[in-house]
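Structure ticket #2291
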Amino acid sequence: MATVRWDGSILRVETDCYYAAVRTEGYVSGVMGGSFVDKRTGSRDLGFGLAVVDFLLEPGADDETTPPDLRYRWGDQVHGNIPKRYVELPQICTQAKKLPVQIVEGKKFVAIRQWFTWTIARPPYRAGSRWEQWLVFPDGVRWFLAYDKVTSANTVNCLLLRMDMPSHIRHNKGDTFQQVYLSYHGFIPSGAFLDDFPPDARYLYRREDGKVPERFIRAYQLPNGIWLAGMALHPPVVYEAWCHQRGYVCLIQEIGGMKVQVGETLEAVHLVGFFADLAEMERTFDAHKNARSLSVSESGWELQ
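Resolution: structure written out below.
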């Protein structure tokens, strides 16, 4: 039976297949780095957190009207030659510091909801957009669901939510993983990530290039052969996805990229878990494909 308990400011989750933890203070949002552990194999995530959330952006370069402290840095190894502008800040994972929480303990699942209202906006936008995230941890499977929803305080022609999916990969010369799999590219050996390179140098996915994959899966294979994968269940929701080396393998992903009016929402559902092979990943994706939202109550959860 899935359970959840408080451990200081951390929520400890246990199902019949894995352990996970959610921070409510400090480095917040998503599942805490290093806490997602597969009971069957002892496999563990390698990043700073799973389904971790950043801020709101839009494409385009800042101009002289943007205050210096609100300018997005690009044209370097970290962000590449991909011009973006902030819409709303701060970065949730590093600067929200503390998030409220709602816990639902249902039959054979545990769900946790957290939320945040952005307090800073780049002119001409105003602060006040609200982010919320449901994490659903079911019994009987080796995966969890992350549902992110943004209710916009602004009308934005191309609103983006940046997140990590499934997580970054910490390593030293490729010692912690065998390879990466990107459904829109293929398999990439760990040796491709020995030296830093910007996100637009290799393996960059952009929806505007015109080819949306049938399945949107990003995964890394651990030394024991087990895969940890993150799947965007409705592939067109992904606007841009990075896979580059910057001291670690950076797996940033941006969702949205469509016009949003004041009060309208941007939302996406991701499935994150441990898998034996690519075939199992694809079967799991196909069983939940095209889910765009998620509802939760004590009586159960449902993908829509």
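Closing remark: The chain has a mean pLDDT of 98.
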